[in-house]
Amino acid sequence: ATLAGGCCPGASRNRFAYNEAGQVRIRAGLPIYECNSRCSCGADCPNRVVQRGIRYDLCIFRTGDGRGWGVRTLQRIRKNSFVMEYVGEIITSEEAERRGQVYDRQGATYLFDLDYVEDVYTVDAAHYGNISHFVNHS
């Protein structure tokens, strides 16, 4: 869909990143720019998917094979749908290296590299986060 009047046309090349059902419709690897406080559109704008937060019923559970905790869905998730945002503290990659050594000794790590453009920052969900902290990466 082409952006309606009042939405942010510049960053998105005049196209929404999502279809009417909120599923990503652009090529993988491209950044997604959502409408925000600079737009004149409202909270019901279809280009505000992540901002609406988690829309699926999710459950934290203890794995049966000793890998710790995990997250599973209690309902079917449509392909290319937003599930959750990985929330945490943004730190430098250097700090992530230091913390990673400590976390490795503790047997758990919650580091997620932000390497879209450069490998400069990392998200650490060890102390600040949401349910994404329990997503099993192994």
TrEMBL record:
Keywords: Chromatin regulator, Chromosome, Metal-binding, Methyltransferase, Nucleus, S-adenosyl-L-methionine, Transferase, Zinc
Binding site for Zn(2+) 3: 35, 41, 45
Localization per Swiss-Prot or TrEMBL: Chromosome; Nucleus
Superkingdom of origin: Eukaryota
Tagged with keyword Methyltransferase: yes
Annotated residues for binding of Zn(2+) 2: 8, 35, 39
One GO CC annotation: nucleus
Domain SET per the UniProt entry, residue ranges: 56-138
Domain called Pre-SET: residue spans: 3-53
Biological-process GO terms, alphabetical: methylation
Matching Pfam families: Pre-SET (PF05033), SET (PF00856)
Keyword Mitochondrion belongs to the record: no
Any one Gene Ontology molecular-function term assigned to this protein's record: histone H3K9 methyltransferase activity
The protein, known as: SUV91 methyltransferase
Gene name, Swiss-Prot/TrEMBL: Suv39h1
Binding-site residues, Zn(2+) 1: 7
Organism listed in the record: Thryothorus ludovicianus
